[in-house]
């Protein structure tokens, strides 16, 4: 049985959970607060980030390393397309969200509203929040553009690109900050992903001390 | 023929160049300054990062996507180990350098000393530099620890983990900021990588307006 050390406000944790559910894997979760990591976590992963994947003595960290490992070892249900060029497009989008979206949106919104509150007891800086919300509009435009042209974000089929993007958006959506109304195609795409059985557990997630936005778990939002 | 749009102070560009040389690929370089990207670059890669890989009309960005694509399509010379668990360790270390080292060292040292100077004409902030140099010691300890226990960073064989780590260190070394003396095993490992033919071009790199450190190109440093 797989144990995933994770946190509901970590998009990388959500990504791996959704991927494992898609692959019908059994796993249990153990929460660690990113702003208050235990010494045990650092023993498992000296980089000090989430999630950490444990399976029968095998320990793996780094959400990209975990994703590729799952794809290589759990091959009945594939979440990567057939050809190298198509896979390249999936990985390009994964990097987009794990690096660019993370730096431009997550750090300015989630770190301000959640990490800062629980690690330092401070209120968010409204200037930083505003930058994050502004950046989010740019990313929503890009998702909308992709969703208008393609069946799923990276092409014809559902892939790790959709999982990664939805994992990131779902944390911002928990906080009620996604401006769905301006982005019809992005909204349609997200409602497709949200309806998948693999997303069910994500919609039950709770961040201690912060209620989810009203529409967070609604399939019809 | 492959065209790589890149810059000598981008570790991700260096990584792909070294990997392509290891694989005996032919390629030409086109420089773009990261602090002054052209509109053409944004047309190729809306994320606005380097490098961008072009091959006969196929355009790919995201250094991880490019690396996996090279590994999947240029298979005579492999830079990934045999088993999924070994590959996972390679990818874990790649993430370590591309995310953690980048955030904790590159941004505090290279962005301060190079990007800031050319984009804003400003001198580096000594407080930020000090944080970067401090963080670098932690990373050197980790490289030293790995190099003491393993033949190469991720295990028995040379891999993309060595390429990525050396690419990142080489930019810092250009600026003369790597404290080699305290880290014997790390130094031995780096001199092994530095001696490879694939590294030759990296050692000829020049960042406009900044001379390399005296020992930068020395194989015996």
Account of the 3D structure:
2 copies of one chain form a homodimer. The first copy, chain A, is of the alpha+beta class and 221 residues long. Chain A has 2 domains: 2-73, Glutaredoxin (3-Layer(aba) Sandwich), CATH 3.40.30; 84-204, Glutathione S-transferase Yfyf (Class Pi), Chain A, domain 2 (Up-down Bundle), CATH 1.20.1050. In chain A, 54% of the residues lie in helices and 8% in strands. Chain A is built from 8 helices and 4 strands; from the N terminus they run βαβαββαααααα. Chain A has helices at 11-22, 39-44, 63-73, 84-120, 126-149, 160-174, 184-194, 200-203, and strands spanning 2-6, 27-31, 52-55, 58-61. In chain A, α1 (11-22) runs parallel beside α3 (63-73). The first copy, chain A, is globular. Chain A starts with a strand and ends in an 18-residue tail after the last helix. Chain A binds chain B through residues 46-47, 49, 58, 60-66, 68-69, 72-73, 84-85, 87-89, 91-92, 94-96, 99-100, 142, and chain B through 46-47, 49, 58, 60-66, 68-69, 72-73, 84-85, 87-89, 91-92, 94-96, 99-100, 142.
């Amino acid at each position: 049985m797989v144990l995933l050390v994770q946190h509901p406000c970590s998009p990388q944790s959500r990504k791996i959970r959704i991927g494992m559910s898609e692959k019908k894997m059994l796993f249990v979760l153990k929460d660690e607060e990113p702003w208050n990591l235990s010494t045990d976590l650092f023993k498992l992963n000296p980089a000090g980030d989430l999630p950490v994947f444990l399976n029968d003595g095998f320990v793996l960290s780094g959400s990209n390393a975990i994703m590729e490992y799952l794809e290589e070892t759990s091959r009945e249900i594939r979440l990567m397309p057939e050809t190298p060029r198509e896979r390249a497009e999936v990985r390009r989008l994964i990097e987009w969200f794990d690096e660019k979206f993370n730096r431009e949106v997550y750090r300015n919104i989630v770190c301000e509203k959640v990490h800062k509150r629980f690690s330092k007891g401070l209120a968010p800086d409204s200037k930083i929040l505003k930058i994050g919300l502004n950046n989010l509009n740019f990313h929503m435009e890009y998702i909308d553009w992709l969703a208008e042209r393609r069946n799923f974000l990276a092409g014809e089929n559902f892939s790790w690109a959709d999982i990664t993007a939805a994992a990131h958006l779902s944390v911002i959506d928990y906080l009620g900050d996604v401006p769905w109304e301006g982005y019809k195609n992005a909204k349609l795409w997200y409602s497709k992903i949200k309806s998948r059985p693999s997303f069910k557990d994500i919609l039950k997630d709770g961040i201690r001390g912060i209620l989810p936005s009203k529409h967070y778990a609604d399939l019809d939002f």
